[in-house]
Amino acid sequence: MNVGVAHSEVNPNTRVMNSRGMWLTYALGVGMLHIVLLSIPFFSVPVAWTLTNVIHNLGMYVFLHAVKGTPFETPDQGRARLLTHWEQLDYGVQFTSSRKFFTISPIILYFLASFYTKYDPTHFILNTTSLLTVLIPKLPQLHGVRIFGINKY
């Protein structure tokens, strides 16, 4: 029994992406980022789409795949301390609805960015590289794997 803890989850980080309205808030946040970038006068539409894609994927990489631990005090004896948010999501169960949503959303944004940049080679390389940096860590084969010991501790 945890005295002074208001939640019933052992690790609330595991269920936060399934909470009510989270997906809508996420989509609206990406839309607002794009509108803000479009409102900057010296950014063309292709540049705004590429920046939206790159900023989104950079943020997703940092918050889901680089930052480890949990902001909550958990009674799991420090097991969550060594896991990224993606690894904690849905208790590590693969192919849940929230994992599918957060895997498909950068792909959709990539297709939109590629279409609106008219597949310009420079934008295409930037968008593809950005997409791969967030899709590769999401693969089930890389669950808990630290390549070259990066982010081991």
UniProtKB/TrEMBL annotation:
It comes from the Eukaryota. It is a multi-pass membrane protein. Keywords: Membrane, Transmembrane, Transmembrane helix. It is found in: Membrane. One of its GO terms (biological process) is regulation of ceramide biosynthetic process. Ceramide-sensitive subunit of the serine palmitoyltransferase (SPT) complex, which is also composed of SPTLC1, SPTLC2/3 and SPTSSA/B. Belongs to the ORM family. Plays an essential role in the homeostatic regulation of sphingolipid de novo biosynthesis by modulating the activity of the serine palmitoyltransferase (SPT) in response to ceramide levels. When complexed to SPT, the binding of ceramides to its N-terminus stabilizes a conformation that block SPT substrate entry, hence preventing SPT catalytic activity. Through this mechanism, maintains ceramide levels at sufficient concentrations for the production of complex sphingolipids, but which prevents the accumulation of ceramides to levels that trigger apoptosis. This is ORML1 protein. It comes from Chauna torquata. The lineage of its organism: Eukaryota, Metazoa, Chordata, Craniata, Vertebrata.
